[in-house]
C-alpha cells in the first residue's frame, strides 16, 4: 500500500495530521486516544 493510499484512508475516517517529523507524518483522532505515525518513503509501506 502506498503512502497516499494510507493517508486517504486515515483522513476519510476522521484522523487529522498534527505533526511532521522528517519523513514521518503523525495523525490523531478527536474521538480516540493515541496517535498513528505513517512513514513517507518511496514504494510500498510494509505490513505491520
Question: Any chance you could write out the topology, listing elements then pairs?
Answer:
Elements (H helix, E strand, L loop, with lengths): L2 H10 L3 E6 L2 E6 L2 E8 L9
What is the helix content? 10-25%
CATH architecture descriptor text: 2-Layer Sandwich
Classified by CATH, the class is Alpha Beta
Radius of gyration: 11 Å
Shape call: globular
Provide the residue-averaged pLDDT: 90
Largest sheet: 3 strands, antiparallel
Q: Count the strands?
A: 3
Percentage of residues in DSSP E strands: 35-45%
The first-to-last residue Cα distance is 12 Å
CATH fold name, please? Metal Transport, Frataxin, Chain A
CATH superfamily: Hypothetical protein
Which residues sit in consecutive blocks of at least 5 with pLDDT less than 50? none
Biggest sheet: strand arrangement: 1-2-3
Number of domains: 1
Main structural class: alpha+beta
H and E order: HEEE
Total number of helices: 1
Put the structure in a nutshell.
It contains one helix and three strands; from the N terminus they run αβββ. The longest helix has 10 residues, at about 5-10.
Explain how this protein is built.
The chain has 48 residues and is of the alpha+beta class. The protein has a single domain, classed as Metal Transport, Frataxin, Chain A, CATH 3.30.920.30. 21% of the residues lie in helices and 42% in strands. It is built from one helix and three strands. A three-stranded antiparallel beta sheet has the order 1-2-3, covered by helices on one side. The longest helix has 10 residues. The radius of gyration is 11 Å and the shape is globular. The termini are close together.
Amino acid at each position: 500500500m502506498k503512502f497516499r493510499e494510507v493517508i486517504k484512508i486515515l483522513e476519510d475516517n476522521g484522523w487529522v495530521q498534527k505533526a511532521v517529523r522528517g519523513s514521518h507524518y503523525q495523525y490523531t483522532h478527536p474521538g480516540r486516544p493515541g496517535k498513528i505515525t505513517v512513514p513517507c518513503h518511496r514504494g510500498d509501506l510494509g505490513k505491520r
